[in-house]
Amino acid sequence: MTAFSVLDLVPVREGGTLGEAFAASVELAKAAEELGCKRFWVAEHHAMDGIAGGATSVVLAHIGNATSTIRIGSGGIMLPNHTPFQIAEQFGTLDALFPGRVDLGLGRAPGAGPELQRALRKDLHQAAEYFPQDVVELRALLTGDVDLPIAATPGLGAKVELWMLGSSLFGAQLAAKLGIPYAFAAHFAPAHLDAALELYRRDFQPSDALAQPYVSVAMNVFAAGSTEDAETLASSQQQSFVALRSGTPGKLPPPIEHYTVTLPAPYRAMLDSLGQAAAVGTPEQVRESIEAFVKRTDADEIILCGSTYDPKARIRSLQLTIEAVGHTANGGAAAVQ
């Protein structure tokens, strides 16, 4: 049975505030918990007006305090931006506050221009080259499986679930070698999805943390009462994708009816490509799309993504989606197979 989880970018909408964005994320996490979703992840982004999750561990503490059972975690922490020791302390603290509920998803992409590199006082592209070694060091700081000259407190002994994130073959290969679960970011980079999952499963080496491969795949999902309403709902995120690709990112804009019709062909093609990892429509249409995606990927878990201008609309979309796939709050399992 396929589990379902939620990825939230903590979007800041046009005309909105940071405080409203954080409050909306809390309400979404509480709804996900009530609906029986397995985990709620927040992604690290920096220097973007429309995304408020930069201080990821702080946001997770806020969400963890407002919930009680759902797993909380990073989807993900971009490790080149940090030192392994700092992340061990941060997530060791989260584990002490919310024991048995914390995930640590790690990504390699520095995702930064010269300005951010200067602000972080790091050569992020060089740091990315040391990513595999840093992941091993971070795991050792948490587990103590390697004798290190310093101990992270909090950190050492924390029961944090370590994940590898990726949108290419590199992350799949590293996840397989380390024997940890793998999450693929198909919601914004689906090109290497099938090859990455095949490589991960083929080369997986069992570890103390995981006996067999475990795959989670992210997809954009927008459910509403009609196809037209769902497509309008999705248009805010589509506008954000186009703005990002055209070098003009900003806050999450209001929805626009029939938005894609107005776009030049290259941007329509880009959104069509993303559509292979998307489900947009009525609950029945969303269910059919998710079932087909699960059949394609054989995913153990689907991470539901999709920012909406109206936070209440996203909660309603999540409710309709979970009801459509037969997810149960007490079982945490779905009817999708």
UniProtKB/TrEMBL annotation:
It holds the Pfam family Bac_luciferase. Residues 4-296 form the Luciferase-like domain. It comes from the Bacteria. PANTHER family: LUCIFERASE-LIKE MONOOXYGENASE. To bacterial alkanal monooxygenase alpha and beta chains. This is LLM class flavin-dependent oxidoreductase. The lineage of its organism: Bacteria, Pseudomonadati, Pseudomonadota, Alphaproteobacteria, Sphingomonadales.
